[in-house]
Amino acid sequence: MTDSPIWRPFTQHALQARAIHVARGEGAWLECADGRRILDAISSWWVITHGHRHPKIVQAIKDQADRLDQVIFAGFTHEPAEALARRLVALTAPGLDHVFYSDSGSTSVEVAIKMALGYFRNRGVARNRIIALEHGYHGDTIGAMSTGARSVFNAAYEPLLFDVTRIPFPSVGREQATLDALEAACRSADAAALVVEPLVLGAGGMLVYGADTLREMRRICASHGVLFVADEVMTGFGRTGTLFACEQAGIVPDIACYAKGITGGSLPLAVTMCAEEIFQAHYSTDRSRTFFHSSSFTANPIACAAALANLEIWESEDVRGRIARLAAMQEERLLPFANDARFTNARRIGTIAALDLRVRDAGYLATIGPELYEFFISRGLLLRPLGNTIYILPPYCIEPSELDALYAAIDEAGDRFG
Ligand SMILES: *Cc1c(COP(=O)(O)O)cnc(C)c1O
């Protein structure tokens, strides 16, 4: 039975009939229609950065809505898109020279894959194979799903997914196996691009790996002429402690995808940025070399204005300080769990903390995620564990006492479910 015609994302309606009705958002909090308040400890699925309804972003949205709502982006342009593209090129490391707009992380990855294949085809090079990391996640459209890990989440669509070369995740002590596999994959004559989440694989279970490995991966790709595509959809805009995760490895990708936090999480917008040579491979009086991609809402002016306001906040407020303090607070609270027998793999990168609950009964593994979710929700906390992996990925405005409440609930969950 359902009380709404809505078909919700990643939801088994037979098991979860009702959704929580949210009426307002403020900072790190969601206010429900029934008056309940819920702490948004996963930034509303990893998008909210500064907190809900940052006043500067809200104002920018209002102002832009008063001027221009939407306009075709082929043959036309507008100031928010122009200004944002210039700012993004200035903000990212030298080498990402062009900005292609779209409206979701999945689409930004599709665009990246199409750019990579177009680059080789337009140069008459027969390379079309994608290389990807085990446990990777890049979105839910067909190309992004193909690039991501295969699981129950995409089993039904398997016949439509294209084949990719999968290399092992570089877990601690096994980094060399990853690099060797990448080297072998890059030697294949048809290798086109490595698509990778830098430093942390999000949906794959908040799996963290080192900047040294990332740097080596980038070097191997470059040495074989294989394009390096950084999917910074989740890691971008401060999550890992730096503005972009690639900064920590001192690398510049050939193609980079940003979405989620680009508008502070307020509106859907994505960009795929690329190196000059990728743009140049499409630059021709021959129309068949055009980059054939568009979304109806490419570079929506209101979303671009929200993203500009976000960048403004990064400049005018001490966002980096806030992130550093949040990282330190997470580290401090995570510490007691590092030697706690109920948990394993306590880990942190930047503002993100994660740990795995040791589940006593293996039969529990399939249902532990939803059970933990309900447990936390009943305490007014939005955490959405990935199986037995509990992670805290909060907006940067979260207060120390709010983090305390989260860790106290995790401690309690350890007793209840561990
Ligand atoms: C969320 C995510 C995506 C997909 O973004 P959507 O906006 O949900 O389409 C792609 N890549 C990574 C790494 C993500 O975390």
UniProtKB/TrEMBL annotation:
Cofactor: pyridoxal 5'-phosphate
Localization per record: Cytoplasm
Site (Participates in the substrate recognition with KAPA and in a stacking interaction with the adenine ring of SAM): 10
GO annotation, biological process: biotin biosynthetic process; L-arginine biosynthetic process
Reactions performed catalytically: (8S)-8-amino-7-oxononanoate + S-adenosyl-L-methionine = S-adenosyl-4-methylsulfanyl-2-oxobutanoate + (7R,8S)-7,8-diammoniononanoate
Record PTM N6-(pyridoxal phosphate)lysine, positions in chain: 260
Major enzyme class: transferase
A GO term for molecular function: pyridoxal phosphate binding
A GO cellular component entry from the record: cytoplasm
SUPFAM superfamilies recorded: PLP-dependent transferases (SSF53383)
Assigned keywords, A-Z: Amino-acid biosynthesis, Aminotransferase, Arginine biosynthesis, Biotin biosynthesis, Cytoplasm, Pyridoxal phosphate, S-adenosyl-L-methionine, Transferase
Transmembrane segments: none
EC number in record: 2.6.1.62
Domain of life: Bacteria
Protein residues bound to substrate: 45, 137, 260, 294, 384
Function (record text): Catalyzes the transfer of the alpha-amino group from S-adenosyl-L-methionine (SAM) to 7-keto-8-aminopelargonic acid (KAPA) to form 7,8-diaminopelargonic acid (DAPA). It is the only aminotransferase known to utilize SAM as an amino donor.
Subunit structure: Homodimer.
Family per record: Belongs to the class-III pyridoxal-phosphate-dependent aminotransferase family. BioA subfamily.
Name of this chain's protein: Adenosylmethionine-8-amino-7-oxononanoate aminotransferase
